[in-house]
Design goal:
11 helices; 7-stranded mixed sheet; about 35% helix; Beta-Lactamase; Rossmann fold; 13 strands; alpha/beta
């Protein structure tokens, strides 16, 4: 086994054993620092020499199907890793920096998608999402920081739908994070001509009942998702915004009118992960909480009225206080 392969095994096994979601390699003239993202926080682990890093980087680029000789352009690749009878999908991303390239690895356990009710700290929030997906058409949007579990939540929603109803569900993703049963998953591949634009047109010709779009990134995707919702499809997607209320303004920035938002939107969920307290009898280290906007709160949010003034709207601040009061989290998570 080559030295770079041995080093790779050491780093990956350490990250997996600590339940890290990401590995970051930060190169400099003196060496390369390695960080793990643990529970949403970036933690320094150790450093390796620059020659070691260059060998490791070449090894990863070759293994993940990237161009080893290309150092001036960002690249992406994927690799499957086996450890302790479990399978992990690794997503690699390189970024040119001064005199080298940085590398980020996202670690995705290839496990069964959890049941919807297992994801959330408060079961009542899962029930609200289940109510949303009873609609036959319209748009449900998720927002939140990277790594907050938005895609996992959408996967769980899709699985709960197709388990109970014979619907045609199709996803358009970049990349596909987990394989789902009884759901058609389409990988965006810009190099092969499968862009979001081309993929959306192809997917709609396949007569889906439910369409999951990995991310609404631009005006065209936003307009396409809206039209799909208008023409009898249930659309799930994510969008980058500060919070649930901010999603309204983000959509307006993308050219969606208030009238169209009123017609298409079923609900908006902003998601965060909370670290759970040590005293709880559970294998979970984190659970999700949601800021949810629907019904009359959503209607008024589209008019520009902040949801915080409504009693039935639970902000993240309120949910964190409730979690602490019930003993779900430690004081230092407030």
């Amino acid at each position: 086994m080559e030295a770079c392969e041995v080093l790779s095994q050491k780093i990956l096994r350490s990250a997996i054993s600590k339940s890290a979601s990401d590995i970051h390699f930060s190169p400099s003239e003196n060496g390369t620092d390695i960080y793990f993202r643990l529970g949403g926080k970036r933690n320094f682990m150790f450093s390796i020499s620059q020659p070691e890093y260059q060998s490791l980087l070449s090894y990863y680029k070759f293994s993940a199907g990237m161009d080893i000789a290309e150092t001036r352009m960002p690249q992406n690749g994927t690799l499957t890793h086996h450890y302790q009878q479990l399978i992990y999908d690794l997503r690699f991303s390189t970024l040119p920096v001064e005199a080298s390239e940085s590398l980020a690895i996202r670690i995705l356990p290839r496990q069964m998608v959890p049941q919807l009710e297992q994801l959330f700290l408060f079961p009542s929030q899962a029930k609200i999402l289940q109510k949303w997906i009873q609609q036959r058409f319209g748009m449900i949007l998720f927002t939140g920081p990277t790594g907050s579990g938005k895609t996992t939540t959408m996967y769980a929603l899709l699985q709960s739908i197709v388990e109970n109803r014979p619907f045609q569900a199709i996803t358009l993703e970049d990349p596909i994070e987990r394989e789902l049963d009884n759901i058609l998953q389409v990988q965006v591949n810009e190099k092969a001509g499968m862009s979001y634009d081309a993929g959306l047109k192809a997917v709609l010709r396949h007569d889906p009942d439910i369409l999951m779009i990995g991310e609404i990134r631009d005006r065209h995707t936003a307009r396409f998702a809206l039209q799909a919702a208008f023409t009898g499809h249930l659309v799930l997607s994510t969008i980058h915004a500060k919070n649930a209320f901010g999603t309204i303004f983000r959509l307006q920035d993308l050219g969606i009118s208030k009238a169209d938002l009123n017609q298409a939107l079923i609900g908006i969920a902003s998601q965060q992960l909370l670290p759970l307290g040590d005293g709880l009898i559970t294998d979970q280290k984190r659970a999700a909480i949601l800021e949810l906007i629907d019904g009359d709160v959503l209607t008024n949010a589209i008019k520009g009225i902040a949801p915080g003034q409504y009693d039935r709207f639970n902000s993240f601040e309120y949910l964190r206080r409730k979690a602490y009061a019930l003993g779900f989290t430690n004081e230092n998570t407030q």
